[in-house]
Amino acid sequence: MTMMTSVLTPVRAGAIALALATAGTLPGAAQADVDIQEVTSPGGQVFWLVEEPTIPIVSIEIGFSGGARLDPADKTGLTNFTMALMNEGSGELDAVAFANKADDISARFGFSGGRDSTEVSGAFLVETLDEGIDLLALAMGSPRFDAEPVARVRGQILSGIAQDETDPQAIAGKEWAARAFPDHAYGRPSSGTKETITAITVEDMRTAHKRLMTRANAHIGIVGAINAAKAGKIVDTLMAVLPEGATVTAEPRDVAPPPGVIVIEQDVPQSTAIFGHAGLARDDPDFIPAFVMNRVLGGGGFSSRLMEEVREKRGLAYSVYSYLSARDEAALYLGGVQTANERVAESIDVIRAEWTRMATEGMSEEDLEKAKRYLTGAFPLQFDSNAKIANYLIFVQMEDLGIDYINIRNDLIEAVTVEDIKRVAARVLKPDALSIVVVGMPVGL
Predict the structure, then answer these.
(1) pLDDT tens, 361-397?
(2) What is the tens place of the pLDDT at every residue in 203-232?
(3) Which residues does 78 contact at the CB level (< 8 Å), separation at least 6?
(4) Please, which residues have CB within 8 angstroms of residue 364's CB and are 6 or more apart in sequence?
(5) Are strands 331-340 and 317-326 parallel, antiparallel or unpaired?
(6) How far is the C-alpha of 165 from the C-alpha of 264, rounded, in Å?
(7) Of residues 164, 171, 352, the one with CA closest to residue 271
(8) What residues form DSSP beta bridges with 219?
(9) Which of helix, strand or coil describes residue 278?
(10) Pairwise CA distance, residues 37 & 50, whole Å
(11) What is the pLDDT of residue 318?
């Protein structure tokens, strides 16, 4: 569980909400052409900028490399807990005063902690941009961690952890990760445990704040009605409140989760299964073909093979899916299914059979063209607002895909051939290596 916190301004938010609602699709979005500038601020901070003068809103996204994988083993959940408190009062403003100030200037803020990064977002009307940036800088640089918000957020996290203890999906995911990563942070829940969350102190949060949010690990995207000179000043204002820090590095590792099936018994009418094995890193030359392949295998909703074979033909499950998960230090190919206890064994057999069929046969030219058509056609929809573009700028920077990636991504998809799919499927898909965790009372396993 990743906790996302935000200040949504309910009173004067009408102005920003109206602007967002009436903005429509940004010019050029139909072609997914985005004019990205790489800019260096007066203070020397590199950031990416997209000028969009037609909408009176400026969206800012800042991603910091690191995230929950940096949490000490005995303080699992620290990143999540810390980021959840970043807008609960800053400087001289307590939580209520901070929220009221944000409301007064129609500003929106978001803070989140993930496994490999933490992210900060802001959306501002042009007319109150300077005040909004000052408030965001205050939140980033001087969080208060007051007793009341800390206790309240701690209670919320502990409540979520308690719910996860009886949720089959959460149980299966937690067990799968623990088996795949017995000696790595990925094997521990990023939301923490009852013991670690209870033990985390305000001093722990202050230490984590200084470690997680540093200039050395910042990736910045700004989109909206703003020019490079103004954006550079904003970047320097925000970075000035942070320590320089040390660059976070990643040490990719091979993943070999134990193959086969394990069952965690839970008295529920349906079984939930998580399955997977090693995948491909995001910078692997075969990642794009694998991404296209997965659209047909299990990532295409009702049009995927898994859905057709498991649900449509046999009525075994309501949902079945697969996806590539390329983390900073490990690459996975994961999936899941939920079905009646009496039918989970058959569902797993069908999933393995489809894994094998794709690995040995690949796909037809027709299936490939359908996948390409969807993946290229849906892509521009990710850029129909300033905030979406800013968020994608951060993704591209943090994955080191290159400033032209947004504009060439569809070309990369179109270049995939059936021969590529067959080669990559044979390389990636290993039905005998599938590690499967089932939670429920499955029959025949």
Answers:
(1) 999 999 999 999 999 999 998 888 999 999 999 999 9
(2) 999 999 999 999 999 999 999 999 999 999
(3) 68, 71, 72, 192, 196, 200, 204, 205, 208
(4) 418
(5) antiparallel
(6) 12
(7) 171
(8) 63
(9) strand
(10) 6
(11) 87
User: In angstroms, what CA-CA distances link 418 with 57, 214, 219, 285, 294?
Assistant: 44, 44, 36, 16, 13
CB 150, CB 84: distance < 8 Å: no
Of the CA atoms within 13 Å of residue 423, those in its CB half-sphere come to 10
Residues in CB range of 198: below 8 A, 6 or more apart: 154, 158
Q: Is the predicted pLDDT of residue 402 greater than 50, yes or no?
A: yes
**Residue whose token pair is 């009307």:** 125
**The two structure tokens encoding residue 414:** 């179109």
The residue assigned the tokens 């995927």 is 304
Check if the beta carbon of residue 292 is closer than 8 Å to that of residue 368.
yes
Non-local CB neighbours of 137 within 8 Å, separated by 6+ positions = 237, 238, 240, 241
- Both tokens of residue 17? 């909400």
In angstroms, rounded to a whole number, what is the distance separating the alpha carbons of residues 8 and 22?
A: 18
User: CA 16, CA 120: separation in Å to the nearest integer?
Assistant: 19
Distance CA 266, CA 258 (A): 22
Distance (Å, whole) CA 61 – CA 223: 9
Quick one: tokens of 342? 């009496």
The DSSP secondary structure of 79-128, one letter per residue, reads: HHHHHTTTTS-BTTB-HHHHHHHHHHTT-EEEEEE-SSEEEEEEEEEGGG
The phi, psi pair for 168, rounded to 5°, reads -60, -40
Q: Are 160 and 1 in contact (CB under 8 A)?
A: yes
CA distance 70 to 246: 13
